[in-house]
Automatic annotation (TrEMBL):
<dbReference type="GO" id="GO:0043138">
    <property type="term" value="F:3'-5' DNA helicase activity"/>
</dbReference>
<dbReference type="Pfam" id="PF18319">
    <property type="entry name" value="Zn_ribbon_PriA"/>
</dbReference>
<keyword id="KW-0862">Zinc</keyword>
<dbReference type="GO" id="GO:0006269">
    <property type="term" value="P:DNA replication, synthesis of primer"/>
</dbReference>
<keyword id="KW-0238">DNA-binding</keyword>
<comment type="similarity">
    <text>Belongs to the helicase family. PriA subfamily.</text>
</comment>
<feature type="binding site">
    <location>
        <position position="566"/>
    </location>
    <ligand>
        <name>Zn(2+) 1</name>
    </ligand>
</feature>
<feature type="binding site">
    <location>
        <position position="553"/>
    </location>
    <ligand>
        <name>Zn(2+) 2</name>
    </ligand>
</feature>
<dbReference type="GO" id="GO:0006270">
    <property type="term" value="P:DNA replication initiation"/>
</dbReference>
<feature type="binding site">
    <location>
        <position position="532"/>
    </location>
    <ligand>
        <name>Zn(2+) 2</name>
    </ligand>
</feature>
<dbReference type="GO" id="GO:0006302">
    <property type="term" value="P:double-strand break repair"/>
</dbReference>
<feature type="binding site">
    <location>
        <position position="535"/>
    </location>
    <ligand>
        <name>Zn(2+) 2</name>
    </ligand>
</feature>
<dbReference type="InterPro" id="IPR040498">
    <property type="entry name" value="PriA_CRR"/>
</dbReference>
<feature type="binding site">
    <location>
        <position position="563"/>
    </location>
    <ligand>
        <name>Zn(2+) 1</name>
    </ligand>
</feature>
<keyword id="KW-0378">Hydrolase</keyword>
<dbReference type="InterPro" id="IPR005259">
    <property type="entry name" value="PriA"/>
</dbReference>
<dbReference type="Pfam" id="PF00271">
    <property type="entry name" value="Helicase_C"/>
</dbReference>
Amino acid sequence: MSFFVEVIIPLSLPKTFTYKVSETEYNFITKGMRIAVPFGKNKIYTALAIDLHQNAPTLYEAKEIHQILDDKPIVNEWQINHWFWIASYYMCNIGDVYRGALPSALLLESETIISQQKDTVVNETELSDDEFLIYEALQHQSSLKVQNIMDILNKKTVLPVIQKLIHKKIITLEEEIQEVYKPKLIRYIRLHQQYQSEESLIALLDNLKSDKRKNLVLQYFQLQAKERKPISVRQLTETAQTSAAIIKALIEKGIFEEYYIQEDRVNFDKNKTENQLTLSEAQQKAHDEIEHVFTEKEVCLLHGVTSSGKTEIYTKLIEQYIAVGKQVLYLLPEIALTTQLVSRLTQHFGNKVAVFHSKYSNNERVEVWNHVLQQSEKAQIVIGARSALFLPFSNLGLIIVDEEHEPTFKQQDPAPRYHARDAAIVLAHAHQSKVLLGSATPSIETYYNATSGKFGLVTLKERFGKVQMPEIELVDLKDSYFRKRMKGHFSLTLIEQITEAFANNEQVILFQNRRGFSPVLECMTCGHVPQCPQCDVSLTYHKYKNQLRCHYCGYNMAKPSNCHACSSVDLETKGFGTEQIELELAELFPNKNIKRMDQDTTRGKYSFEKIIDGFKNREIDVLVGTQMLAKGLDFDNVSLVGIMNADNMLYHPDFRAFERSYQMMTQVAGRSGRSEKRGKVVIQTYNPLHNIIQQVTHNDYQGMYKEQLYERKIYYYPPFYRLIKLTLKHRDFDKLKEGSMWLYQVLQQNLSIPVLGPEEPAISRIRNEYIRTIMIKIPSETPLQGTKKTIQKVLNSFEMVSQYRAIKVTVNVDFY
Ligand code: ADP
Ligand code: ZN
Ligand code: ZN
């Protein structure tokens, strides 16, 4: 009798594969264990066992496995089922899902490149012979392929020993860049507890002989009264013009005491002790309603205005789930937001909070994976970006999807192109757990589900602490330019408001939905605009580097001094981005500390956190940024938000442009006035009467929703239609044109629903590949499975046409 194991291989292949095993192996292996298998010519991959059987494959001779890599499963059945669901729903290969789901350190293969981990001290005597040989080889070569190690050790079964060395932190996968961020510790100073009362203070001042010391105490008081936040030693030294020696003397006398706060942990508000969380009446009510919804429904939307304290409600709910031993998954749209949230949640839950996302090192990710697998307390609450959905949960109680409207929950490239919110709902259903979606600006789809009874709906209309919603002022740019009430891109109104905020020691956020200095360089003589040679887009001018850059492929060149078309030197910059705002602002307010936050300034692992920390600590006065600013950041001293140009968001050729504009503006506006004082928002626009602008101004989500829903209905968009977008790419323009037409026609013949295209997208060439798209619109009442099957069949026959074989087709289900 023969024995076989069925495995998934981490390659973009649609099928599972059958390998031969011995009877002993057959009895040992369980589903969810990893197995090293040979595949293709001399390659070895880490496959996943999903079944054991005795049916020999009919199409090929089953090869033998190399080695079993685990003694217990590291993937559970819920995961395997969920991954197959993702592959089927999002029309991709199971190998794609498996590859995307596992941390790459768990997926070693013959091509993986490893190198020595720099900062580890190695005790050579503790290494096994094989470990030592690998270690020694890495002293002579900076990196090795797993394949090389097979040669060095002269055997094929090397993955476990490599895994051990990774675990011992002696080696690491090569693609990792190690970057360590040590939050700065800041030295603060305060009066000793015993001088809190007025009498004791007066007595103290009477007792102090030295004028210098007396003066210092008084200065401290003034500073404290003015700033109402912790006073750093540096700040006191500067303001009081005093020496460190005097401060030291007062500390020694027990009049002052010093203390240190990690830069990102500063809590300015003494009255907020986050570990004893009491919900406001409105929060409590919302919380109770959510609990009630969960007795009837699996999914609940919490629609709470910005700064209504949604995080606190989540926290209270999490408390209940972990009290009964359940695991909780907290999904965030943007890994950059995790630091703020992690410090808020660890204050409350201590070390039960684990973080999982792609900027974490492989070791860290494997660690979290194992903690979740073992149901360890250390990962009872997992905060993560969308990929945290793939962790081996087996006791999941609650999934929170915060800022559920954010498009970054949809993975674009590579496959699986899944939507983490939707995939989370499916996962929760299998675990019989609950899902809480939270947003101040829910997506149209979610709000539709919440009002049609599919999900529960809980609304929270007031901000925490009864802070009022910010006051929004519109500035008509046409009128302002006409009446010369502009300086550069700043209206006088905005300048006045900024000045006032500074006068009150408050901070400002300016939002510009474009990075770079100025999108394009235009020739004033012939109108030529430099284009990317590889893509169908204009190059963007970046003043800081004096370069023209392509935002699609990274192509760049020095700024030309004359026009490449007509040689004229009369070149001008058109439009404006964050960099230009930053420069103009520096001219208007030369003494202020201005920082920019966009993709260009936040590339490093922790650069985002550094900016956020600096702003939170009030070292930065103004933050100029792109949509990164619109994602759930909580600052307590921002009294003004300026939206530099509302119009460029509105006119994107995309059916979600209006919804997105509403969300973006409302979210950025929501950063203003989050504690005590009412905040202010200035929106500069050429279209003050545009419906979306009006709806933002009046905080009219309902109005926006009704109008957009109507448009979605009459133009055949979600939630009434499901979209499947096919993207075809090829370097040969004519072949692509022909092929996409063929595919379009065959689809149309086989489907009785709208098929649109083939269309040349707005950017029709990227990295020298031409692009065409076909959009399929599936009415919600049409059976989805059958339609997808038909589409897949057509795609399969497309692949069989030899002259089109080189055309790459990607499928994007529920296109975002
Ligand atoms: P949202 O996520 O709804 O925009 P947050 O959860 O960030 O709002 O809350 C806004 C601010 O109010 C935060 O600074 C938070 O610490 C504070 N806050 C909210 N609820 C409470 C509460 N119950 N007790 C103390 N502070 C709270
Ligand atoms: Zn020219
Ligand atoms: Zn390009």
